[in-house]
Amino acid sequence: MASLLDPTARGRVILVGAGPGDPGLLTVRAVEALKSADIVVHDGLIDPRVLDLAPAAAQRISVAKRRSRHTLSQEAINALIVAHVKTGAIVVRLKGGDPFIFGRGGEEVEAVRAAGLPVEVIPGVSAALGCAAEAMLPLTHRDHSSAVSFVAGQCKGLTDQDWSGLAGKGRTLVIYMGVATANEIADKLMRDGVAPDMPVAVLERGTLSGSRAIKTLLADLGSMVDREKVASPAIIVVGEVVDLSDAQDKLGRWARISESVA
Fold first, then answer.
1. Which residues are known to be catalytic?
2. CB atoms < 10 A from the CB of 29, how many?
3. Whether 14 contacts 33, CB under 8 Å
4. 18 neighbors 26 (Cβ within 8 angstroms)
5. Which strand (E) or helix (H) includes residue 105?
6. Pick the CATH number of 128-261 from 1.20.140.10, 2.60.300.12, 3.20.20.70, 3.30.950.10
7. 32-84 pLDDT, tens per residue?
8. Which helix (H) or strand (E) holds 81?
9. How far apart are CA 64 and CA 70, in angstroms?
10. pLDDT class for 156, splitting at 50, 70, 90?
11. For the domain 12-125, what is the CATH superfamily, name and number?
């Protein structure tokens, strides 16, 4: 694989994890990649200060995706990347968080390799790690959690999936893209055996301006999301470790909800 520091290496793709939002969480290697770019194909929530790290002459192409509203299909994004690389360009595919954690990075790597083109992946700080750190929420803890799982809250066949064993005593569950389906997620977890009084935190806009970390109990998750008007980007953390965090129960309902679901 050609070195990022080799200015003569042309016609390649670099998938770069941009982290959860704060430009300070970029890796050194990610910055090097951006500075080498001819074209930056980027997600919609990338901070402009991150895009500014690419050369001024580099073309910037947004392929922003929102729930039910995609600028381009994934197949079209793959084709766009391949077409530009075939011209000899260094294409940086800049993705929020980490490319291989719910970022469809695997699909893009497959497409580039199928075209016989070189590709490199630079990991990024995932949303779970960055947002949890900001909220002082340890995803694992020797006394409270020895396992952590990541799931997508928006996917086909959500209600048919078996999440039993992913959350509960001694385990932490992190749910990406779960705000819009918070009610269904809470109902599903309780049907799969998670206690209604299990602590839950919602980490909204983590590492970005206006970030919030709020908590409640599992039985109240959907209602809290509605009351607090939580909006994406946000992740949901389920587990005892939530009690160790700085997440706030803004309405002072913690004790009353605990009593009601006991």
1. 43, 65
2. 17
3. yes
4. yes
5. helix 105-114
6. 3.30.950.10
7. 999 999 999 999 889 999 999 999 999 999 998 765 555 789 999 999 999 99
8. helix 74-85
9. 6
10. low
11. Tetrapyrrole methylase, N-terminal domain (3.40.1010.10)
